[in-house]
From TrEMBL:
GO cellular component, as recorded: membrane
Gene Ontology terms for molecular function: hydrolase activity
Source taxon at top rank: Bacteria
InterPro entries with a match to the protein in the record: AB_hydrolase_1, AB_hydrolase_fold, AB_hydrolase_sf
Upper taxonomic lineage: Bacteria, Pseudomonadati, Pseudomonadota, Betaproteobacteria, Burkholderiales
Keywords: Hydrolase
Protein name: Alpha/beta hydrolase
Domain AB hydrolase-1: 76-310
Keyword Hydrolase (UniProt): yes
Length: 324
């Protein structure tokens, strides 16, 4: 009788290895939601603050924000972050601008420490309504409004709808146009599958977050472990992963391009020349559509130039704000 293992024995052995490998992967990449309280110490030290914002229908949204610089500034600078980011993306700019200007940054619903919207609505129009309520509660009637990526798209739509509130506009690799992407971050490429969405809510490989951040930088070597930690941990804020899935499903690029011609505010358009998510041709399109606009491209930078090289990019903002 042969001592060679039977096919069935070999199959059982392979299945055993597969189960073991799956268990090890599950142990390595299991990443349950984290409650807000567990993240505050690291990601919301002073001057971070929280407010309870009243929404239409009586719902309440907790909002994480920072209000820095001289309160005597009656036209504060308000900066909006992009998809899967947070107010921390503006820290370099805030450090420079807040020396002479009041600067307000916030985590938009579904992201950062603000967390998911109680309305479950992540459309651009819903964000516009949220911003109006936020500005009303902080008693901000006039501002310089800026935004990156998704936040840039929300900024130009808000400026078009509320021209009396926006004294100037700063768009940084702004979304809102319907243009093809040369590359989409790995973390955004989740197929429309309930099983995969469930898995994404249970597992989050840190290498996937690392890769996604590097893909939006012009120079990936600028990405360090602390930066990846921030994106990784804030994505785990309770409810954020489900909110991201909903936001990606509810996007309607190009739907509001007709608003661009209504923008009256002087507008600075900044772009990373190595942006593969929203290509630099978008800067040209925005410039052509917005009457009082100027463009500056940073050849070596990617989709988040304000984060990748805050010193160079904020200088353009200083020049813009002090121009006649």
């Amino acid at each position: 009788m042969s001592d060679r293992p039977t096919f069935g024995a070999r199959l059982m052995k392979l299945l055993g290895f597969a189960v073991l490998a799956t268990a090890l992967l599950a142990m390595a990449f299991r990443a349950p939601d984290r409650p807000l309280e567990s993240l505050i110490a690291r990601w919301a030290p002073p001057p971070s603050d929280f407010i309870e914002l009243k929404l239409p229908g009586g719902q309440v949204q907790l909002v994480h924000f920072r209000d820095q610089g001289p309160r005597s500034d009656t036209t504060p600078i308000v900066l909006l972050h992009g998809t899967a980011a947070s107010l921390h993306t503006w820290e370099g700019w805030v450090k420079s601008l807040s020396a002479t200007r009041r600067v307000i940054t916030l985590d938009l619903p579904g992201f950062g420490l603000t967390g998911p919207s109680p309305l479950g609505d992540y459309s651009d129009d819903a964000y516009g309504s949220f911003l109006w309520s936020f500005f009303q509660q902080l008693q901000i009637s006039r501002m310089v409004l800026g935004g990156n990526s998704m936040g840039g798209g929300l900024a130009w739509q808000y400026a078009a709808r509320h021209p009396e509130q926006v004294a100037a506009l700063v768009l940084v690799d702004a979304a809102g146009l319907d243009l093809p992407s040369a590359a989409v971050p790995a973390g955004f490429r989740l197929p429309d599958s309930r099983l995969l969405h469930w898995l994404a809510g249970v597992f989050l490989p840190r290498p996937l977050v690392d890769r996604s951040v590097r893909e939006v930088y012009g120079d990936p070597s600028r990405v360090d472990a602390a930066l990846v930690d921030r994106y990784f941990e804030l994505t785990l804020r309770e409810g954020n992963r489900e909110a991201l899935t909903q936001r990606l499903a509810q996007r309607t690029p190009g739907r509001n391009v007709g608003l661009l011609s209504r923008i009256q505010a002087p507008t600075l358009i900044l772009w990373g020349g190595q942006d593969r998510l929203i290509p630099p041709v978008a800067a040209t399109r925005l410039h052509e559509a917005i009457a009082h606009s100027t463009v500056q491209v940073f050849p070596g930078l990617g989709h988040v130039p304000q984060e990748e090289d805050p010193a160079s990019t904020v200088q353009a903002v200083h020049t813009f704000l002090h121009s006649p």
